[in-house]
């Protein structure tokens, strides 16, 4: 593809577990003007079996969902600022 331009955005998810609470931070880098961060949490009810992989998945998915919502909100604002019209048909997070 002549004249094509590639960009690389990287998402790193860091997961930490303390007692029965898992937190995840999803950090998007490579995008101007700088990194974006989404955070998610999962808690294991004391009466439930503690399965760390489930907490990791849930906390990470929540962090990524927050990050995706932030990116969508920025996209909508950018479209509106360039078109001077309200964006319709795009679900906001």
From TrEMBL:
Xref: InterPro entries: Rv2632c-like, Rv2632c-like_sf
Gene3D superfamilies: Rv1738 (3.30.160.240)
Pfam family, one: Rv2632c-like
Name of protein: DUF1876 domain-containing protein
Source species: Streptomyces thioluteus
Organism classification: Bacteria, Bacillati, Actinomycetota, Actinomycetes, Kitasatosporales
């Amino acid at each position: 593809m002549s004249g094509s331009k590639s960009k690389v955005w990287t998402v790193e998810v860091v997961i930490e577990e303390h007692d029965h609470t898992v937190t995840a931070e999803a950090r998007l880098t490579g995008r101007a003007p700088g990194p974006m961060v989404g955070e998610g949490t999962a808690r294991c009810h004391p009466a439930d079996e503690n399965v760390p992989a489930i907490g990791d998945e849930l906390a990470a998915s929540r962090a990524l969902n927050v990050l995706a919502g932030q990116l969508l909100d920025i996209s909508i604002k950018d479209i509106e600022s360039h078109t001077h019209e309200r964006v319709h048909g795009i679900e906001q997070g």
